[in-house]
Design brief:
The chain is built from one helix and 34 strands. Its main location: secreted.
């Protein structure tokens, strides 16, 4: 496609988009006219683009594509670092190779990073983001989003809405944000933070750190030596296999450890108890449900534990 009047030469491998039309108002001398501006056919290309030197422009290794409004678009990058921007519809953005930036915009979009270390931003709508290989950053923003890091050590942030986040193969950080979120780690050492709302966090394999945040959360450590901190709200904590650490502090609400074992450790905040571990155990009550630690309006129940013998060895203070 040659365009002498516009001083650009595009050599093959292009997708024809069509004719662009803009309608607007123009006022002069107190009279308003309707103006119509139209462009010739234009296209997207992954081929060579030659620019007239007289324009004072330079070529870049970064490709940029923006979806024309308002339909559902499929935007594809290439092996270099791409910038892809969706429009108002339900768009599909594919970065392929390179360190890409994908922005979905409005609508329920699908963002696929590909081979590099990518940045994916969902925007408004219920979006799906897949980081691919590389250390990716995937942000859902508003809406009920599904985000998956896949390969690499990724950062996933659901933002507002009831989101589902899956880490993948690396050392991932998952942040649910506002809403009732579901966070699943992966095979390595992950950090999961539910944020506000009633969240479900599961670490899977590896030595994971789980932070429930506000709300009534369920935290499940998995197979490694995990650290579980429910935060505010009435939380349920499951360490899983291996020796796990449970954290409890002031204003944490009424939490329950569902699978406390002899190898596990409980870290109490010093703001709750200024005495020794032995004196704390002596103050605990053995109930029909288990051993109960009470601190005014806060409490921690070790479900199924029938006595306090040797329990001081499982307690430390932070």
């Amino acid at each position: 496609m040659n365009s002498p009047g516009h001083k650009a030469n595009i050599l093959g491998n292009y997708d024809l988009i069509g004719v662009g039309v803009v309608i607007g108002a123009y006022t002069t001398g107190g009279t308003t006219y309707t103006t119509v501006a139209a462009t010739q056919n234009f296209g997207w290309t992954t081929g060579q683009v030659d620019l007239d030197p007289g324009l004072g422009l330079t070529a870049s290794q970064t490709a940029s594509k923006t979806a024309p409004p308002p339909g559902n678009q499929i935007l594809k990058g290439n092996a270099t670092a791409d910038i892809l921007k969706g429009g108002a519809g339900h768009d599909v953005l594919k970065g392929f190779g390179g360190n890409d930036v994908l922005k979905g915009g409005a609508g329920n979009d699908a963002l696929i990073g590909g081979g590099g270390s990518d940045a994916l931003v969902g925007g408004a709508g219920n979006d799906r983001g897949f980081g691919g290989a590389g250390d990716d950053k995937v942000l859902g923003n508003a809406g009920n989003d599904f985000l998956q890091g896949q390969g690499g050590s990724d950062l996933l942030n659901g933002g507002g809405g009831d989101d589902a986040l899956i880490g993948g193969g690396g050392d991932d950080t998952l942040i649910g944000g506002a809403g009732d979120d579901k966070l699943l780690g992966g095979g390595r050492n992950d950090v999961l933070n539910g944020g506000p709302g009633n969240d479900i966090l599961q670490g899977h394999a590896g030595a994971d750190r789980l932070y429930g945040g506000g709300g009534d959360d369920l935290l499940i450590g998995g197979g490694g030596k995990d650290r579980l901190d429910g935060g505010g709200g009435n939380d349920k904590l499951v360490g899983g296999g291996n020796a796990d650490t449970f954290v409890f502090g002031k204003f944490y609400g009424n939490d329950t450890i569902l699978d406390f074992e002899n190898a596990d450790l409980i870290e109490f905040h010093r703001s709750l108890w200024s005495g020794s571990a032995r004196s704390l155990v002596d103050a605990a009550r053995v109930t029909g449900d288990g051993v109960l630690f009470e601190f005014g309006g806060d409490s921690l129940l070790l479900l199924g534990v029938r006595n306090t013998d040797g329990l001081e060895d499982n307690i430390s203070f932070i």
